[in-house]
Amino acid sequence: MDASELGMSADAMTRLNELKPGKPGSIFTSDLSVNEFLLVRQAGFRPLGMVLGTSIYHVGIQFRRWGRNQELETLSQAMYHARELAMDRMEAEADVLGADGIVAVRLRVELKEWGSDIAEFIAIGTAVKAEHGGDWRNNRNKPFTSDLSGQDFWTLLQTGYMPLGMVMGSCVYHVAHRTFGNVIANVGRNTELPQFTQALYDARELAMERMQKEAEALHAEGIVGVELQQHNHAWSGHTTEFFAIGTAVRPLRDDHSIPQPQLVLGLDD
User: Could you tell me the superkingdom of the organism this chain comes from (predicted)?
Assistant: First the structure.
């Protein structure tokens, strides 16, 4: 399969071929800290190289009602799809290296000066290979992805769990404007704004629900390291994105139980 079929450039393919294990003179690259690198090695995984995926995306527009709370589905789909493209290309690079997974993944959005509706979606991580074999791929036959730190990755494996993949949910939401009468009625008063409260509550719930559905599709037991982020990007003050992201995990064995810490008894006990 050539570079274009994998959605990457020919230069990227050349770089990855230079990183392939066993190639004379090849050295790994990694954005792991020294502590993370050592713990990943201690967990039984060898870094192969940094892998990345990118997508320059034009985010369309969607009309909204000035005084109504509503999700902007077109924008939600755009933000989700752009991140998926970046993640897929990062996973394709890991596949070229023969990796079992990608650790310490960072997923970010950078607005470009070319236009307020143009952004670059970037996924970056370190591809790793299990030194003692085993089946580490998820049920989609893809390398696992995880945004856990090297330290948390080590702890997860020590307790008998493995990462399956990064899961995410996005919701772009328009928060209704207050009427002139409402603004005047609340001048100088301490009072909740129920319309605003409900809008932000609903938007967060939609993002969380979509993240959970992704984890269910991976047959995960749960999601760890969840972050619930809010971004306004380049939209108006009344339009915002709620983005939920975490790492789906499952036990390494069906009969797994978490090891219990040993109690240290005092001399007088």
Answer: Bacteria
